[in-house]
Amino acid sequence: MATKGFDLAPGIRIGGGSRPVYMAGPCVVESRDFVVEVAGRVQEIAGRHGVPLIFKASFDKANRSSEKGFRGLGEEEGLDALAEVKRTTGIPVITDVHHPEQAARAAEVVDVLQVPAFLCRQTDLLHACGKTGLPVNVKKGQFLAPEDMANVVEKVAATGNQRIVLTERGSSFGYHNLVVDMRGLPVMRGFAPVVFDCTHSLQLPGGLGHATGGAREFHPYLARAAAGAGVDGFFIEVHPNPPEALSDATTQLSFDEFDRLIGQLEVVSTAVREVTP
C-alpha cells in the first residue's frame, strides 16, 4: 500500500510510490569540521547511487544512558554547525528536538524536524513541531504498538500540518533488547509514510551498563527485510570510524558499509515497486 506522498524538501518526495529517501549522517554533531566532512562523504556516496538524501545529525542527545555520555555541542553551536552543512553542501538537513521551545529555533536552520522515540507521545512537543510548518518525522516509541501511532499522527495533524513521517526503530523485548515486527510497517503506512531506522533497531538499550550496546552485524538483514516490506525511506547513522564515535559507537555504519547497504536496498526496493500495484 503506497501512502500519499509529499515533499520533504525541494526535489525530495516521500511516499506515494516515490523511490525511498535516505536520512543519513552521524548520531551527533561531534564538532563543526567533523559534521561538514561527514556530510560531504555521505553526499558523495548517495550521489553515486543517485538516491535522494537528507543529512541527519543531532545537536543534542538528551536521552543518553549515563550522565557522562557525550550530548553534543548544544543548541546554538550545534545548529550553527548544521547551518554550515547546508551552506557548504546544499543538502537538506533533519535534526531532533527534545523540548517544545527548541522547535521554532531549529526550524530556522533545518528542513525536517524529528521527534525522538522516547518523546513520541509528548503532545506539546508534537504540536510545537507541527506549528513550524516543516515536515515532522516521529520515531515510534519502543513501548508502543504500531497502531498506537495513529494518535501521534493526529496530534501533529491537529496543527494543520499534514507532512508527517513515522520511523520504526524497534520495540522493547525484555531487558536490553529490541525486536522489529515487520507487520508494523504496513500498519503504520496506513497513517503516514514510513521510514525504517536501520541502525537504532540494532541497539541493545543499556546493554553496556553505562551505555547502549548493539548488534551491528545484523544491519543488512533487518534493512533488506524492511525494503522488502516496501518502506518509504531508510534512516542510517554513518560515522568515519564507528568504534570511536562519541555516541552509538556499537551501531553506526562505516562509509563502506553505508555504500554497500544502499546498493542492496535499491535492488530490493526497485523490485518491490515493480510488483506493487
Please give a structural write-up.
With 277 residues, the chain is an alpha/beta fold. It has a single domain (6-275), classed as TIM Barrel (Alpha-Beta Barrel). It has helices at 32-49, 75-89, 100-107, 123-131, 149-157, 184-189, 219-228, 255-275; strands at residues 6-9, 12-14, 21-25, 53-56, 93-96, 112-115, 136-139, 164-168, 171-172, 178-179, 194-197, 203-204, 213-214, 233-237. The strands form four sheets. It has an eight-stranded parallel beta barrel with strand order 3-4-5-6-7-8-11-14, surrounded by six helices. It has a two-stranded antiparallel sheet with strand order 1-2. Helix 1 links the parallel strand 3 (21-25) and strand 4. Helix 1 runs parallel beside helix 2 and helix 7 (219-228) runs parallel beside helix 8 (255-275). The longest helix is centred in the C-terminal third of the chain and has 21 residues, at 255-275. The chain is globular, with a radius of gyration of 17 Å. 48% of the residues are buried.
